[in-house]
Amino acid sequence: MTSTQAKVSTPHGHSIRRILLRTLGVVAVAFTLGFSIHRISVALERSTEPAGFLRGTLQGALMPCALPNLLVGNDVSIYAQNNTGRKYKLGYTVGVNACGAVFFGMVFLRLSRWRKRLNGGGGSET
Questions:
Q1: Would the pTM count as exceeding 0.70?
Q2: Nearest Cα to 52, choosing from 74, 16, 84?
Q3: Is the dihedral of CA 88, 47, 79, 70 positive or negative?
Q4: What local confidence, expressed as pLDDT, does residue 95 receive?
Q5: Which residues of 34-57 are buried (b: 16+ CB within 10 A; e: fewer)?
Q6: Residue 126 falls within a domain, yes or no?
Q7: pLDDT tens for residues 82-112?
Q8: What is the pLDDT of residue 12?
Q9: What range does the domain containing 100 cover?
Q10: DSSP state at residue 71
Q11: Distance CA 113, CA 116 (A)
């Protein structure tokens, strides 16, 4: 290459690297969550006292994250059979809904930012 030739970087290569890094990041987070959920599930199953509101909230929030473990064949408990009844079920419901609100809140926030970028920085659509 001569001194007059400029090195041209392709945006295509940059986007592939960015997608690969995001994919690896998602896989790392999923692996960490799956490992953690499996350990938490084992620890919670050892408890002999009935599950109450706080344990229901924790299990409800972690329930959607149990899917990867279930797909690879790990038997993860997503609901305590030995529970206090209404308090546990209320906690479980709060946990599932809070997890869904966080997940979908992040998705809709990202979509909103993406739309603003596509529309040239903002403005309301009519």
A1: no
A2: 84
A3: positive
A4: 92
A5: beebbeebeeeeeeeeebbbebbb
A6: no
A7: 899 999 999 999 999 998 888 888 888 888 8
A8: 64
A9: 13-118
A10: H
A11: 5
